Amino acid sequence: xxxxxxxxxxxxxxxxxxxxxxxxxxxxxxxxxxxxxxxxxxxxxxxxxxxxxxxxxxxxxxxxxxxxxxxxxxxxxxxxxxxxxxxxxxxxxxxxxxxxxxxxxxxxxxxxxxxxxxxxxxxxxxxxxxxxxxxxxxxxxxxxxxxxxxxxxxxxxxxxxxxxxxxxxxxxxxxxxxxxxxxxxxxxxxxxxxxxxxxxxxxxxxxxxxxxxxxxxxxxxxxxxxxxxxxxxxxxxxxxxxxxxxxxxxxxxxxxxxxxxxxxxxxxxxxxxxxxxxxxxxxxxxxxxxxxxxxxxxxxxxxxxxxxxxxxxxxxxxxxxxxxxxxxxxxxxxxxxxxxxxxxxxxxxxxxxxxxxxxxxxxxxxxxxxxxxxxxxxxxxxxxxxxxxxxxxxxxxxxxxxxxxxxxxxxxxxxxxxxxxxxxxxxxxxxxxxxxxxxxxxxxxxxxxxxxxxxxxxxxxxxxxxxxxxxxxxxxxxxxxxxxxxxxxxxxxxxxxxxxxxxxxxxxxxxxxxxxxxxxxxxxx
Length: 525
Ligand code: G4P
Prior knowledge:
eight-stranded antiparallel β-sheet, globular, Rossmann fold, single chain, alpha+beta, 13 helices
């Protein structure tokens, strides 16, 4: 039966996976896509074996380094739900990209390697989710390996991340002695390494096995049972409300690689994960089932598919329904335009979108119109969604074209790649020399690689080291304040800023020029 508009919106589940590299994000994503029928073979996401177009692995550099550099979107249907997974780069140099992606989701899945516990990158990403108050579902992975004790992992969640937890299931042993999980939620045992028809064993009202099974005699099972009793008595209560506001995380133990516990996780996740939520705008909250179409650009990516040489603006739909050819207004400029070329994302192909509602991600072909953070709407009144987090670059390089004959490609490449937002472009005031700023070194490497491969422009990069960037209002600009320790430059919007050599130079400058107001964008957003 065809769903009505509200049912369509409610069936959307849009999330990102947050984790430290190597915790198993790719493996879990792949298993989820397999369940959803979006891919047919393991190995597709990483593109190792099949040689097909690999969604989260489209850049050569990514393969060379074995890291996921770019975010992308994967979509599948399961059990009447439309699931959108937004991939996030694991490498810390790309955290800015990841943070913006987290603005576009309604919930997050946090993967933890059972042997490593909570790692640095997870903490950072967790904080962003926390700040937004979105629900976080935890998957403790690699139970087929010897790891930390489950109770220890739970206390790490509470102590390191400061979030309450509720184990939805509990492991029975681990590593070589991993027997399965005690499913507290569905009141059954899910056996590891067993015939499919015996995978689930029911529990009676006292939480004991209702059927004869060799597990009953095992001391590992007894210990798990004792721990579950302890959790029942002393653990947190299950609370849907706390899950919804991000105060409590449901915890699932499993093993992505052996596809154990993943399906139960997916089904339970879909049950409790939020559908698209209202979003704050300058005109108040926008309801996901409001009639007018609205959305915001959270990512721009050039040359998604090198064969097509296109650039795509990723739009999170926040209300209404997308229709091909519809007219929208770009709030920043007030300009009206027709959305005729668009795409939705699947794991193994990019197919043309026909129906997309709140929660879905739209890819709009972009000829340079959009900026990150832009709002588009079909409504009469232009609205603007909340600002996306912006990060001040800390590392800077001077960049020039190696071959003066290739200036055209060089300029085109720089301007297009800068639009993606991972790297910032500055120019010196009079000579207009190019300076690039980024949060991490890897971004420069990727930039150099892409300029060469996608624009056929080789570059020279001269490191300027780390700098502290502070913006200055136009009326206060005085070029005599510029020196080698406080270099005055302009950004791509022609706003002026100083690049201070270090914090000391910044303080010294401020002492000497107390009337000059220096602006740190991190503090104003
Ligand atoms: P990531 O995207 O979070 O970086 O992690 P990824 O899925 O690539 O997994 C990292 C490594 O951990 C991979 O092994 C993967 O096979 C392994 N792994 C993932 N889930 C599990 C699990 O449940 N149990 C066990 N034992 N291992 C798991 P690798 O040898 O580094 O890479 P690969 O060459 O096998 O891909």
